[in-house]
Fold each of these.
Amino acid sequence: MDVRWEEAGWERLTGRAGRRRLPVWDCTVGLVVGDESVLLVDPGSCVREGAEVRAEAERLTGRSVTHVAFTHGHFDHVLGAAAFPGAEVYGAVGLAELLVADRDELRGDAVRHGLAADEAAEAVDLMVVPGHAVSGEWTLDLGGLQVLLANVGPGHTGHDLAVFVPGERETVFCGDLVEESGEPLAGPDAMPRQWPAALDRLLSLGGEDALYVPGHGAVVTAEFVRAQRATLEARSGVS
């Protein structure tokens, strides 16, 4: 156990990767540390929350966050990005255009789920969209560590991105393709009939022994991901 990380409320997963479960929506923020650069996976739900995450990340790593990856476009996973000026931002191809087109819906969704109206308005007004569109796989060199960004969707949304971190045990940041704290949530933008195939791609890239980090909830194994795939398969009626 890394006491410094644990005392700050973060869970150290491997020598290179850790995460924090943010309050209110139990949304996971991932932190991946290279020799030269630092990647944050999902920056939180608003500018205030993003700023808190940035301060904690800088304190834990001694460096600024240089890269941000969005696992998908829901408010609790993207609206904190304005707190990371200068960071290179990555998302699945098409996500940037969707976020711009759906600004009003994004703000409304945040407020409906309990974010204060003024914080939602500020976050959407300052919203940062991905400058780098991942259509297949993108290898990101953080210095001594090569991280794979993989467009494995659609599934939970039309623009699902997973982050694969090599190490003593591969760590896979799944976004909301995998949820441990409840049943997988299929909102109006979900593609349930394609979701099981997205999990197949996730498992194929991550392998049997990886740590799978859900968008919400505790870290799980490949066995859990397969069980959730079976649930989604039964729900959607596809194999």
Note: The chain has a mean pLDDT of 95.
Amino acid sequence: MSLVLDPAAQDLLFREARTANTFTDEPVTDEQVQAIYDLVKYGPTAFNQTPLRITLVRSPEARERLVRHMAEGNQAKTSTAPLVAILSADNEFHEELPTLFPAFPQAKDLFFSERPAREGAAALNAALQAAYFIIGVRAAGLAAGPMTGVDLEGVRKEFLDDDHTPLMVVNIGRPGEGAWYPRSPRLAYDEVVTTV
């Protein structure tokens, strides 16, 4: 059985896509980011939770503050990427549930009244949304460089508040010269899938 998605789109989103390590200086516009979000906001999450928050780092001052928290190997590319996004989980996402999940508005209080439950749900569902975001960046014809080599607690203190947990930093732009490392191996189907 073949996939329904066009092979060129499969290549763009998956087979040819890699983490970019260099970028051109072509800007990434607010309109492009809006188009990415308007696509990926439809990705499924539990109870239609929407805990992902995106902080766009554009100003030179903010960029300098962020780079200080990046691992040494991630500093140069974060300094030169046209756009950098801090992806975080909003641990107070449950306040939106009556609107976002009208079929079961009591879910807000029934399942998420306690902070530890919210933090776990926010981390999982924001991570799902972060993956959708990366695919959306690719769908826009841009390259993404997601990184967890960062002092996340430092980023939280510098850019967020106690209700937000940073997940990763993503460099975004058109790939530059030498952007790609060679494709790394992947596990085979029978190494991953078990039928019971």
Note: The mean pLDDT is 96.
Amino acid sequence: MTGVPASAAGASPETEVLMEEPVEPLGARPAARGGKIAAAAVNEASLWNVANLLTMFRLVLVPGFVMLMLAEGGYDPAWRSFAWAAFAVAMFTDLFDGHLARTYNLVTDFGKIADPIADKAIMGAALVCLSWLDELPWWVTAVILGRELGVTVIRFLVIKYGVIPASRGGKLKTLTQGIAVGMYILALTGPLATLRWWVMAVAVALTVVTGLDYVRQAIVLRRRGIAERRAASGGSTA
């Protein structure tokens, strides 16, 4: 390099522009591609994290729970105890995998979809089995499952406006449902059978109340989102 401008040396302006462009080091683009491939591989591998594996385990556990619940006609205390153990494991892993995903940043798209499906699958299987065995009124099963299905539909309808966070009432509802259904799975008798009826009554009440509150929050969220969009649209045109 002599430090003489290209134009002074008789070069054309086009040549000068080309000479001023930085030269890309050899192998830079392949390295970039390699980095993207490596990142994609990491993202793909993250599907098999501990939280997602627990969710998959809960999904696989559902048919096993149904088999245990209905074994020997569905009224054998021993098989019902095994079914309760499977249900308890599913409920525990539900709390555990969510905590792991949030604490260690293991949240994935698969987990967002599969986790609520696994929750509703084990609870729905237990309710349907209990109603099938005439131990729980079908209307109770319909109210609980109807609420869960309705909330899921509403969540998808308002997702473009925002996300409704889980409330304390919703968490209490889930806990009460788990306790009540677990007590019914054990086929208790005597005073405990009476107690489980009251626990289920509280669970149904919380199911209805929290479901209505979720509808209210969804309506408020939708109205707020529409108002914000209108305000933003009006501001841009002004």
Note: The longest helix spans residues 191-237.
